Amino acid sequence: MNEKQKNQETFVIRILGTEHATWQGSVTHLDNNQTVYFRSELELIKIIDGTLEKEQAAAEESIK
Question: How do residues 8-48 score in pLDDT, each as one tens digit?
Fold first, then answer.
């Protein structure tokens, strides 16, 4: 498996509305079917980043 294939994750982002010039909605990580709601674009980015960090840590742990 090459490096590009190993790092692919799939997220579905649903924008439910906007308030105070920012998005609110939900993000679903399709690989584990987990949905999290967010209140801003920054929170959305943090959720995705945290999920990717957990996935990477789990992958590294399984290699050991």
Answer: 899 999 999 999 999 999 999 999 999 999 999 999 999 99
CB within 8 A of 30, min separation 6: which ones? 10, 11, 12
Does the global pTM surpass 0.90?
Answer: no
Asked if 16 and 28 touch (Cβ cutoff 8 Å), the reply is no
Label each residue of the chain as H, E or C. CCHHHHCCCCEEEEEEEEECCEEEEEEEECCCCEEEEECCHHHHHHHHHHHHHHHHHHHHHHHC
Angular region, 33: left φ>0, alpha ψ -120 to 50, beta rest: left
